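question for whoever is on the cluster today: can someone run the full assembly for these? two chains, 738 residues total. i dont have access anymore since they changed the login thing
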Amino acid sequence: MKLYFQKSALMEGINIVMKAVPSKTTMTILECILIDATSGEIRLLSNDTEMAIQTMVPGTIAEPGMTAIDAKLFFEIVRKLPDNEILLESDPTDHILISCEKSRFNIAGRRGDEFVEMPSLEKGYYITLNQFTLKELIRQTIFSISLNDNNKMMTGELFEVRDNRLRVASLDGHRISIRNTILKESYEPKKVIVPGKTLVEISRIIGGEADEEVYIFFGSNHILFEFGRTIVVSRLIEGDYFRIDQMAGGGYETKITVNKKEFMDCIDQSIIFVRETDKKPLVMDIHDSAMKLSLNSMIGSMNGEISVDKTGNDLMIAFNPRFLQDALRVIDDETVDIYMVNAKNPCFIRDEDESYIYLILPVNFNTGR
Amino acid sequence: MKLYFQKSALMEGINIVMKAVPSKTTMTILECILIDATSGEIRLLSNDTEMAIQTMVPGTIAEPGMTAIDAKLFFEIVRKLPDNEILLESDPTDHILISCEKSRFNIAGRRGDEFVEMPSLEKGYYITLNQFTLKELIRQTIFSISLNDNNKMMTGELFEVRDNRLRVASLDGHRISIRNTILKESYEPKKVIVPGKTLVEISRIIGGEADEEVYIFFGSNHILFEFGRTIVVSRLIEGDYFRIDQMAGGGYETKITVNKKEFMDCIDQSIIFVRETDKKPLVMDIHDSAMKLSLNSMIGSMNGEISVDKTGNDLMIAFNPRFLQDALRVIDDETVDIYMVNAKNPCFIRDEDESYIYLILPVNFNTGR
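^ ran it for u. tokens below:
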């Protein structure tokens, strides 16, 4: 095999496929990137068995072939080469020579046919979405997946299509994050659970341009994201997702509208006194048009006050301040509405047309009053 | 005690004294910052017993007093306060209230008189130097101190004054870094060993302005750096420093002049194949006006070539590429001169007036030729 690349194009391709190179694996071949130039195009492929990424790299095939090359080493070498034409050659025993200007690198590759191909997926049902929207949907929900493997479903996110709406949701037992977005077309209903790790990597790869599309193909066991010259295929998580509609409905007794920045600043200040070993709640005391905020821990106490627009009853309720912070951080509105029933029931942070709903369970508190 | 500060002024002061707050200590009082407003000024003090930092913070003393406050907590609170006036109050039992706008923080302080005062030093002998020069001298030599405590002297740097010259030097058994600078005045000869850690922290604190001075006072057991409103006092390392004049003299058989960037790029590329467990040398093969560079390891090999201006003999010699990299990185010249005798003797990277001298010992190599 003998290939010519521009450094920048090759670097871009490597950066993309690096995201599915496992850091630890018993199958050492998967620590490689497959370079496949057997079919007229130059294809890079990585696969960590949960997720596979393939991208096409522009370049010249002087001699077709395929080989697998240690991903980290390949990344390091190409990164350190000058911004010029790179020659990549391999012989039948997979000895690889990479050269650029006066630098030459010799390394041992591995047989390309030992590499694990990406799972095949019948390209039937699919939806389209722009890259920016997908990136945002992930960012705005990913923080409330569970990192604990005990309940596999909680480590993934619900992707649910109904008519012209896509709903993305995650939950970890203490809170639920839901984002709804309008699609350009209507589709048959579909519901899958996508692993959180896949979504994190995808949001790192996609450029986030509002005018570029992502095609999402839903298979029975896999999901495929296609954008630009890149394809990501991931396993799905099996099971019926939690019935979030039942959890996220209902009325309210108290509604407050707060300035998001003021509220976040107070929460931020209260977190100073929270320790892993001493998780004290932030108490919100809503009375008329003021909300007093306080957090007391072994280390010290914080007290603040912000003005609110209140509808309904006065209320005293307490939350894990980090959960409030996580939700508020991904809301772009200047003011937010918070709906509550009483100190025992969850609060809902949501906008009028429910493009977002963040449900957070309250915690017990003792004010000592 | 009752003090008023502007947030930015207080934050700047805390940032400075934080550098001498120990992360682990058996004397828990040292995890605090002393706030002393007993003598008409507001003084912050930290002390890790090796080094103490004191800085004056502009502010208003409504009620004099002193107290000690947990450094990390104080830093976190002030950092998160709005950019406005801060009130800091303590009562006779060292309960502390910090407030700003509508936020109030209560924490337990400690008795100020429990804190460890900075060592006193008779302000006799001193030199002056601009901040930028001191910062540069440290940056350009600190990398070759030894991190290993076996030989205490190697963990520090030589500060040697002779007439109007200051020499700063460090060595770790494999290399020596020497920087010489001209002072504005002439002084009596003086020689001390300053702990590397002190120098690292000082170079972080000083602003690096070329028009602001640092006063360096040399005591018998301590050294004191004074700049702006800040004083840093550090213990000195005892002992007679190594005789670097004897090591750093002598003639040469081969001299090459190389483009620094080209040389560094090649070294950088070679380091890809160096592992902690497989430290192979970079072989330099100097022949006429070319220098071939190669590094062979278990992982692979790198070959490069750069053109040189050579005086004297052809030579093949090998070095730890990281040592070359460390020295070249802190030399600002576009080309560097390297002086060598043979493959067994150190090379010297130095400029004509010896404002810098970097000595590096070669390593054995086997080219297999």
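summary bc i know u wont read the tokens: The longest strand of chain B covers residues 175-195. Chain B touches chain A through 26 residues (CB under 8 Å).
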